[in-house]
Amino acid sequence: MSMNSQGRPTAPAAESRTVSSGPAALLPAEPLLFEIGDRDHSGVDLPDVEVDDSRLGGLRRKAPLDLPGLTEPEALRHYVRLSRRNYSIDSGMYPLGSCTMKHNPRLNEKMARLPGFADVHPLQPVSTVQGALGIMEQLSHWLMELTNTAAVALSPKAGAHGELCGMMAIKAAHEAKGQGHRKIVLVPESAHGTNPATAAFLGYSVKSIDANENGTVDVEAVVAALSDDVAAIMLTNPNTCGLFESQIIEIAKAVHDAGAYFYCDGANFNAIMGVVRPGDLGIDAMHINLHKTFSTPHGGGGPGSGPVVLSEALAPYAPVPFIRKNGENIGLVEHAEDGSFGRLTAFHGQMGMYVRALTYMLSHGADGLAQAARDAVLNANYIKARLDDLFSAPFDGQPVMHEVLFDDSFLKGTDVSTLDFAKAMIDEGFHPMTMYFPLVVHGAMLIEPTESESLQTLDVFIETMRDLAHDAKAGNVGRFTQAPMRAPLRRLDETRAARQPKLKWSQEDQRAKAAE
Description:
One of its GO terms (biological process) is glycine decarboxylation via glycine cleavage system. The protein has 516 residues and is of the alpha/beta class. It contains 16 helices and 14 strands. It folds into 2 domains: 1-39 and 69-104 and 374-516, Alpha-Beta Complex (Aspartate Aminotransferase, domain 1); 120-349, Type I PLP-dependent aspartate aminotransferase-like (Major domain) (Aspartate Aminotransferase, domain 2, 3-Layer(aba) Sandwich). The protein has a 7-stranded mixed sheet with strand order 3-9-8-7-6-4-5, with helices on both faces. Strands 12-14-13 form a 3-stranded antiparallel sheet, covered by helices on one side. The longest helix is centred in the last third of the chain and has 37 residues, at 351-387.
């Protein structure tokens, strides 16, 4: 018997397929603390305290605190059980396309927790943080080296924040040249939604550029959209369809000839780091998601980091603060100089993310970073090659980069939707891939394995996907429309949950539910 190390054991089936069955040991729904504990007991013995009302300013509580009393084991077990229901990159593969959910090496974490990095404060005197500034200076150097650019802003706290930074530099450059009338930004229809949102936030009008039949942007379409009112193009490369924009150099030249700037969305830099330098392609600004490319933690609300590299043309407009080295001393330029658009955020960015990213760079070296990018591309193409005969690809006949895009055509006539298919993956112990994005493809299924996953893991994932596809086409609709059946909770109304969240538990709600 072959073993599924992520879900339950798998066994060979027809056509040499490995049939993955779901995680049987998942816990049932975990009650809330309010439902476990009661108001009559406490895990801590405290003496009664007499409090003079005069010390409370009339704010004495008029009703019981109404907190559940639990013993220490009850409280501890509750949170441990909740943690076991989390899905994380440490527990299994994340095939989310466009997200680059890669492994975070523990060496990075160890370095970030070193004294002097973990407890550094942004208001410390510069003379006391020379080591931390040295980290920032080295990180800046290698980010510029990897992208062949002239300057970098470290302070942006995420990818979208980085987009804002780059576009603010572009806006400042136009205004400095008396070109403030340029109010149009070109954005391909396959772009991340933050691209047009960023442009609109800065007061620009967004003009969409259609993708061609190959899923990329034609230089002719860009040229036709250019005018004296265009400020920039915001192009992702590799794009969100997982394809390299083969005409990017020609597009950059056309944009520059029209007096506009080229903003490149660097969310997918993981596919080309150490192999292709975006500056050589003609970009003027590009944000880099440190979590996607250099393995700093992803998700959880932060802390994030989205440094922006700038070309020589935009370097004078970089925001403060930025690093300046004077002999052996490293300083921070805190006040805007001529050209700079000023301060983007209060402080200097996320030190822990800088340490993690630089540790990743130094531990891999130039050859290791390039190998990681090539492995990410190889893994995505391996999945594509193994699933091509059962799944439908909207832009077939060409190799992909870091991710592979399928659509729902192969499900036509099965009464199984993209959402149904994704929910069935949960029963097999896998996190679903990205669904319904990019919007240029109906029923999109976007899979990005990253370089972190081994051949064994990819094979188990692929065989599970093949088994699901076979079952869908064989008419086993119940396996999909009823899924997930082995998860702690069954299928939820996610739209209603997002729009009408219950943020407070009350006993009355529970009684009403029981009455129903």
